[in-house]
Amino acid sequence: MILNTLVKVTGLITYMYGEKKGQTEEKLCHAQLIDRGDGAVLYLEDGPTGYESFYIKTDAQELRHQFGFDDRDWCACFGTEGRWHKLDIPAASMRSLARDLRII
User: Fold this and answer.
1) Cα separation of 91 and 42, whole Å?
2) SS3 assignment, position 8
3) What is the pTM of this model?
C-alpha cells in the first residue's frame, strides 16, 4: 500500500440544496491512505463533510468488496437535505483507486 499520497478519484455529487438542488454531476476528489496506528484508513479529502473515510479491511474478500470489485459503489456521503450534498464513488473509480494505491 502507498501511504500519505494524494490520488485523484472521480465521484458523483448530487446537490441537496442551492441552485443545483437535485442535479448530479462528476466531481474530482483526492483520496489518500493514512496509517492511524490501528490500521490504514482511506480518507477522501474533498468530500462534502470532510470526514468521508473508512478503515481498510485486511481480509482479501472484504477488500474486494470495499473497492468495487463486486460492482458496488461507495456512498461516501449519504447527503442531508439542506445541509450536506450526497457523494457516491462509482465502483470503477474505486477499482482504479485500489490499483493506484496498490491496495489490491
Assistant:
1) 15
2) strand
3) 0.89
DSSP alpha helix (H) spans, 1-104? 60-66, 91-100
CB atoms within 10 A of CB 5: 12
Q: Which whole-number Å values give the CA distances from 55 to 14, 18, 25, 90, in the listed order?
A: 24, 32, 27, 18
Is residue 51, in this structure, part of any structural domain at all?
A: yes
Give the number of residues written for the chain: 104
Render pLDDT for 4-42 as a digit per residue (tens, 0 to 9): 899 999 999 999 999 999 999 999 999 999 998 888 999
Largest CA distance in the chain: 43
Q: At 74, which amino acid appears?
A: W
Q: Let me know if residue 2 belongs to a domain.
A: no
> How many domains is the chain partitioned into structurally?
1
Give tens-digit pLDDT for 49-58.
Answer: 999 999 998 8
Instruction: Kindly write down the DSSP assignment for every residue of 49-88, as one continuous string.
Output: SS--EEEPPSSHHHHHHHTTTTSPPEEEE--BTTTB-EEE
